[in-house]
């Protein structure tokens, strides 16, 4: 059941991402330096966030709780994760603090796959992305093993 929900959400996310990429290509010159890596990061990011969304959906018992995580956690992590700037522009202490943000590794991997430039090594970005995916997968497995918030 979880694989169906997560698979559907990840597929939808990847299709939307590719549509946005194709649309952007109509307006700006688009080059992908490493297309296979871009697709790999696209799949890993989509599955990771879909697993996270599944966890939030199980945890939230009302609409307000459902909106709490994107509003107070995901949005700030995205804006502070180097999406709109290079973390190398930050003072050294903030660069170190920023490396605790999981979104940094997702953004850096995508940036490298498009422009061949990254704030963090592509190997570290890939490892951290797979690590976050594994953590969320373990949480989903725990939810099904314990039956947390699941109806019988």
List the helices and strands and how they pair.
Elements: H1 2-27, H2 35-59, H3 63-79, H4 92-98, H5 102-115, H6 122-146
Helix pairs in contact: 1-2, 2-5, 2-6, 5-6
Average pLDDT = 95
The total tally of domains equals 1
Count of runs of 4 or more consecutive helical residues = 6
- Strand percentage: under 5%
Share of residues in helices: over 70%
Task: Report the structural category.
Answer: mainly alpha
Task: Tell me the radius of gyration.
Answer: 17 Å
The major pleated sheet works out as: none
Q: What shape does the CA trace take?
A: globular
Number of strands: 0
Termini separation comes to: 14 Å
Structural commentary:
The chain is an all-alpha fold. It has helices at 2-27, 35-59, 63-79, 92-98, 102-115, 122-146. The protein has one domain (2-146). The longest helix has 26 residues, at 2-27. α1 crosses α2 and α2 runs parallel beside α6. Helices cover 75% and strands 0% of the residues. It is globular, with a radius of gyration of 17 Å. The protein starts with a helix and ends in a 6-residue tail after the last helix.
What key phrases describe this protein's structure?
75% helix; 6 helices; globular; 152 residues; mainly alpha
What would a concise description of this structure say?
The protein has 152 residues and is mostly helical.
